[in-house]
Amino acid sequence: MRDRSQVPVPAAAKRTRTTFGTLAGFLAIGVALVGGLLTLLASPASAAGTVSGTVTDAGANPISAIDVFVLDPVWGSTIAQTTTDGNGDYSVPVAAGTYRMLFRDPGTTYADRFSGDAATFAASSTITVPESGTHIEDVTMVELGAVFSGTITDAGANPIAGVVVEARTILDTVVATTTTDGSGNYTLPDVGPGTYRIHVQDPSGTYTNVFHPATQYSTGATNFTVADGDAVDVDLTLALGATLSGTLTVGDAPAGQMLVGAVGAGNGQIPAYAVSDPAGNWVITGLTTEPVKILILDPNYFLDGPEFGLRPEMSPQPRREQPRAVQRLRRRHRLQPDLRRQPLDRHRTGGGRRLRPDRLHRR
């Protein structure tokens, strides 16, 4: 068999990577690109326009060092950029056409603004720059966050100093807090965009602790939806608060460190609570006239289990000679030390006979 690698290839049959046709094609493309570039360079300067304007705050004061962007009206990409001078003025040359604008504070004082004084790109308006002309686009910057302010007074329109004012989310999370001054005025600044409720609490216990308009329950509170730059005035009038108090005992012994909550009779919310002192005394202040029940909780019931704490009690409740929770606590106190970590119905004598709970102390 003949070796194919030794077969000579005719010179006419050899391929070359560069031909006259390929060189001519590259030459044509190069000529076209150069021609296009020359056309652009030869375009008259009058085809360009200018965007200019002044950036101010809400008080019409000029703002320097604000970054100004000329954006593609569809994709939002940056076409040109500049920065405001000490007088809040700017000017940037661009080709004639349609654009959107973005004004951005490189610091943390002002929120982004777009052309048309819009808060978002989607809500912004387009601008048109004429050939050899100027489009004027002024903008007013707004500070980051919203501001709640107002005055807290009593029923006689007298200002109340020293009450705590809070902005809370709909999940009842406190996001801002302050205290009223001597004139009853308050300001809650830098609250981000969102929905909030205003809550007022009197540390002295003299006045009601309420949400706006005048309820101790968050479900009945006013929802305020705000955006950056909003200023919302919220005044409240506080009535004298109601007080609930009492003493907790187990038999003749005081029951301290018990949680006592005021529970809404119709909604189950707990607007206020207290902890009983070593003498068993408790006081809840600042309540409105909205009906409540009293819930008594022993933390040990949840931490160590039902065998070692009082069962939760709700008042008012049907009268009975002795609450079961008190019976349970008395039984717990009679347990021997070696039996305290096991349920009562699991303890048996050596003969297999179940002990009665009320006889455990006789072992």
Quick tags:
disordered N terminus, 26 strands, mainly beta, disordered C terminus, 363 residues, five-stranded antiparallel β-sheet
Q: What is the helix fraction of residues, given as a range? A: 10-25%
Ends: how far apart? 113 Å
Q: Beta-strand level of the residues, as a percent range?
A: 25-35%
| Helix-strand pattern | HEEEEEEEEEEEEEEEEEEEEEEEEEHEH
- The overall average pLDDT, rounded, is 79
Poorly predicted regions are 1-21, 37-46, 317-363
Structural class, by secondary structure, is mainly beta
Task: Map the helices and strands.
Elements: H1 20-41, E1 48-56, E2 67-71, E3 78-83, E4 89-95, E5 97-104, E6 113-114, E7 127-129, E8 134-136, E9 139-140, E10 146-154, E11 164-168, E12 174-179, E13 185-191, E14 194-201, E15 210-211, E16 224-226, E17 231-233, E18 236-238, E19 242-247, E20 249-250, E21 253-254, E22 259-264, E23 272-275, E24 281-287, E25 292-297, H2 299-303, E26 313-315, H3 324-334
Give a verbal description of the structure.
The structure is a single chain. The chain is mainly β. The chain is built from 3 helices and 26 strands. The strands form 7 sheets. Strands 2, 3, 5, 6 and 7 form a 5-stranded antiparallel beta sheet that branches. Strands 11, 12, 14, 15 and 16 form a 5-stranded antiparallel beta sheet that branches. Strands 1, 4, 8 and 9 form a 4-stranded mixed beta sheet that branches. A hairpin with an 8-residue loop joins strand 5 and strand 6. It is elongated, with a radius of gyration of 39 Å.
